[in-house]
């Protein structure tokens, strides 16, 4: 049997995702390149980088993780979508990718316990995680030295985080012109820290059971979908991750299949009930 030519495989067939029809199924994974300016805005170099990847493409570019707010954490030369200037700079990049016939999603995230304690302190902001559990000795020393020890989110701070995801989504979709946002629930950043028992030992409504650990993610999904529509929203998860202290299937107290099956079933239930039928999902 002769194998089909690559050009004739599904990889190069159009597919409708949310509100757009991609010309192929090639998706550029979010890749942090640390090329933003000191105000966390994309530079000309960033524009060139994404233009080069959208040329002769027609598929989907997922732009590297951008902080939803200063409280989301800071990281050297990493992007944010918060100020007007940042939003305008992202609009230029989204326009440029569209002008080449490709489509674009912005990954949005929040660092949580792996935020930069020193930078946060400089901005008068606390270092917050689901629980006060440090990643390692080094991060504990850095937080203490900065005078910004890790503490757990209060419930009002959780509600504020949810609002910040919603506002960043509105800025990305309605102002900057991205086709999608991708909510980052992977790689043990803040939202994955809530889902994983290794980092979430809360005893309130946001921890203590599979459902309660998933609650923050589902509340964000509901808020952003209400704000911009399900066709513009994707989610990334990494259930087996061990990076940055993920339990990765090793915990006797939480199995990734049970934990994430619940999360997916809740997304699916919403898809059936409120027409999330075009929810764009990217699952590792
Ligand atoms: C330099 C670099 C930066 C990355 N930045 C991000 C990021 O911002 N967000 C994210 O979800 N994944 C990020 N990743 C992970 C990639 O999206 C991807 O999942 C990983 O490279 C594995 O790709 P593979 O499955 O094709 O091997 C990054 C990877 C690399 C190598």
Topology:
Blueprint lengths: L14 E3 L2 E3 L4 E2 L15 H11 L5 E8 L16 H16 L3 E7 L7 H6 L5 E2 L7 H9 L5 E2 L2 H21 L4 E6 L4 H6 L14 H19 L4 E5 L18 H19 L5 E4 L1
Parallel strand pairs: 3-4, 4-5, 5-8, 6-7, 8-9, 9-10
Antiparallel strand pairs: 1-2
Helix pairs in contact: 1-2, 5-7, 7-8
Flavin mononucleotide binds next to β4.
Describe the structure.
By secondary structure, the protein is α/β, with parallel strands linked by helices. It has a single domain (15-283), classed as TIM Barrel (Alpha-Beta Barrel). It contains eight helices and ten strands. The protein has helices at 44-54, 84-99, 117-122, 137-145, 155-175, 190-195, 210-228, 256-274; strands at 15-17, 20-22, 27-28, 60-67, 103-109, 128-129, 151-152, 180-185, 233-237, 280-283. It has a six-stranded parallel beta sheet with strand order 3-4-5-8-9-10. Strands 1-2 form a two-stranded antiparallel sheet. Helix 2 (84-99) links the parallel strand 4 (60-67) and strand 5. The protein starts with 14 loop residues before the first strand and ends with a strand. The mean pLDDT is 94.
State the gist of this model.
The protein has helices at residues 44-54, 84-99, 117-122, 137-145, 155-175, 190-195, 210-228, 256-274, and strands at 15-17, 20-22, 27-28, 60-67, 103-109, 128-129, 151-152, 180-185, 233-237, 280-283. With 284 residues, it is α/β, with parallel strands linked by helices.
């Amino acid at each position: 049997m002769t194998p089909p030519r690559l050009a004739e495989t599904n990889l190069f067939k159009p597919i409708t995702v949310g509100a757009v029809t991609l010309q192929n199924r090639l998706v550029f994974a979010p890749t942090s390149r640390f090329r933003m300016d000191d105000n966390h805005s994309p530079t000309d170099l960033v524009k060139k980088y994404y233009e080069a990847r959208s040329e002769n493409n027609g598929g989907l570019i997922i732009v590297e993780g951008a902080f939803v707010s200063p409280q989301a954490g800071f990281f050297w030369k990493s992007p944010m979508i918060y100020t007007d200037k940042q939003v305008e700079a992202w609009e230029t990049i989204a326009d440029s990718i569209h002008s080449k016939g490709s489509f674009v999603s912005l990954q949005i995230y929040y660092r949580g316990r792996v935020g930069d304690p020193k930078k946060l302190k400089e901005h008068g902001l606390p270092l917050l995680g689901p629980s006060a559990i440090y990643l390692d000795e080094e991060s504990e020393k850095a937080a203490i030295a900065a005078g910004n020890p890790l503490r757990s989110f209060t419930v009002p701070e959780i509600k504020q985080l949810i609002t910040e995801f919603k506002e960043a989504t509105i800025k990305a979709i309605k102002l900057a012109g991205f086709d999608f946002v991708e909510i980052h629930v992977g790689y043990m950043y803040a939202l994955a820290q809530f889902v994983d028992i290794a980092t979430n030992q809360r005893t309130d409504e946001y921890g203590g059971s599979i459902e309660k650990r998933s609650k923050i993610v589902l509340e964000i999904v509901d808020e952003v979908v209400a704000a911009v529509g399900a066709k513009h929203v994707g989610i990334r998860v990494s259930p087996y991750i061990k990076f940055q202290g993920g339990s990765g299937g090793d915990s006797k107290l939480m199995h990734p299949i049970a934990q994430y099956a619940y999360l997916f079933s809740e997304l699916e239930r919403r898809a059936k009930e409120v027409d999330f039928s075009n929810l764009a999902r990217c699952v590792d």
